[in-house]
Amino acid sequence: MAGARIVLGVSGGIAAYKAVLLLRLLREAGHAVRVVPTVSALEFVGRATWEALSGEPVHTSVFEGTLDVEHVSLGRSADLVVVAPATADLLARAAGGRADDLLTATLLTATCPVLMAPAMHTEMWLHPATVANVALLRSRGVHVLDPESGRLTGADSGPGRLPEPDTLAAAALALLAGPVADPRTVLDLAGRTVVVTAGGTREPVDPVRFLGNRSSGRQGIAIARAAAARGAHVRLIVGEISVATPDGVVVERVGTALEMRDAVRRAALGAEVVVMAAAVADFRPVHAPEAKIKKAPGQPPEPIVLVENPDILAELVADPPDPQTLVVGFAAETGDSEGTVLDHGRAKARRKGANLLAVNAVGEGRGFGDVANEVTVLDAAGCVVTSIRGTKDQVAHGLLDVVAARLTARSADASDPVSEPRTTILR
Ligand code: C5P
C-alpha cells in the first residue's frame, strides 16, 4: 500500500530519538507521516525536527489545528497509527481511554490498525499496572510489540528497550500490507533478513535445449511470502517457476546452478536465515556448444557428458559468508530397498550439516506442484524437530515457527544482549 497516511505518535522517553529514523524510513517507503508528539516528547526531540522531516505541521494539543478539528480528523483519516516510543504513562492513558492531548484523542478516534512500541525501564515494564494496561490494549486489538532486552538509558540493562527503527518500520509496513488476521503471522521475523531460493535450475545443452526438473517453486515461494508476512526483509532467488512471485520481496532471477550459487553467496552475507528450497541440478553438461546441435540423419547424437555442480547448501555450511546465518535445506526423498524416506533424510541431514533440513516424500502425486505437503524437520544430527502437514503455506509457516524459535534462542544465549537483536513478537 503506497502513499498511506500514517500518524506517528511519539511519547516522552529518551528513545524518541529512534522515532526520527523511523519517520525517515516510513517517508522513504512512500508514505505521508503526520507526527503527533506529546508535550514531554518535545523535551527529547524538538518540533522543528519533526516538522522538517515530515513536511507537515506538528501539534500536541487539541487546541491547535482547531479549524480542521484535528483531534477527530487525524485519527479518522489515518491508515495506520504507530506510537513509538510508548511510555508507561502513554500506555496507561490509552488504556484508560483518556483524551487529554492530541495523541490520545487521535487514538480514540482511529479506526485503522494501531501499533505501539513500548520503551521504559524494566521495573516500569514489569509493574502490574503496565502489564494490565498492555493486556487491556491487546484485548482491544492494539498491536503492542514486546520491547527488546538490552542496554537502557543508564548503565542498567533488561527488557524495556525500543526495537531498532528498521524493526519498527518492518512491523508498521507489514500491518499496512494487510490485516494480521492469521495469528501465525506474528511479526517474529521483523527486521530479519531471510534469503529463500525457489524453482528449478536450467543447465544449457546448447542455445535452445537444457536439462531441467519438475520443480514448480511453490514451496519456496510460500516460504518467501510467509517470511515477508512475518516482517522479514526477504530476498527471493528463483530459477524456473510456474507461479507468481509474492509482493513485498526482492526477487533475483537466475538460470543455472552456478548463477544460483553466486546469487546465494552474495545474498547470504548479512542474512540471518537462508532457506534453500530450490531444486538445484546436481549435474550440468560439461560443454554447451554455441550453435544448436544438429540432427544428422541415421547418425546417433553425441552423448552429453555431465559434470557435477557445486552443492550450494553444503558449501554454505562448510564455508559460510556469514557464520551467524541459520541454514535450512530441503530434501525431496523416495523410500527404496536401502531405507525409508526418513532414513535417507537423516543421512542427508548429517551429510549436509544444515541447521535444519525439511524432508518430504515425493513421487506418486506427492511433493511436486499444487498439492498438499508433509515435511519432517530434522536438525544437523538427523534428529526429528517436528513434522508439519498441510498446504504449502501451512508448511511454510510451520517451518518458520522453528526458524523463529531458533533465532530467539540464539539471541537469548548471546553473551552481549545489547548488540544482539531479539525477536519482537506482535500480538
Ligand atoms: O542432495 P539433494 O539435492 O537432495 O539436496 C537438496 C537440498 O540441497 C536442497 O535444499 C537444495 O536446494 C540443495 N542443493 C544445493 N545444491 C545442489 C543440490 C542441492 O544447494 N547442487
Structural notes for this entry:
With 427 residues, this protein is α/β, with parallel strands linked by helices. It folds into 2 domains: 5-177, Flavin prenyltransferase-like (Rossmann fold, 3-Layer(aba) Sandwich); 193-415, Rossmann fold, CATH 3.40.50.10300. 33% of the residues lie in helices and 22% in strands. It has helices spanning 16-28, 47-54, 70-77, 88-95, 102-109, 122-126, 128-139, 165-177, 218-229, 257-268, 312-318, 341-352, 392-413; strands at residues 5-10, 32-37, 80-86, 114-118, 143-144, 148-151, 157-161, 193-198, 203-204, 210-211, 233-238, 250-253, 273-276, 283-285, 306-308, 326-333, 356-361, 373-379, 384-390. It has an 8-stranded mixed sheet, sandwiched between helices. The protein has a 5-stranded parallel sheet with strand order 2-1-3-4-5, sandwiched between helices. It is elongated and about 95 Å long. Residues 415-427 have low confidence and may be disordered. Cytidine-5'-monophosphate binds next to helix 11 and strand 16.
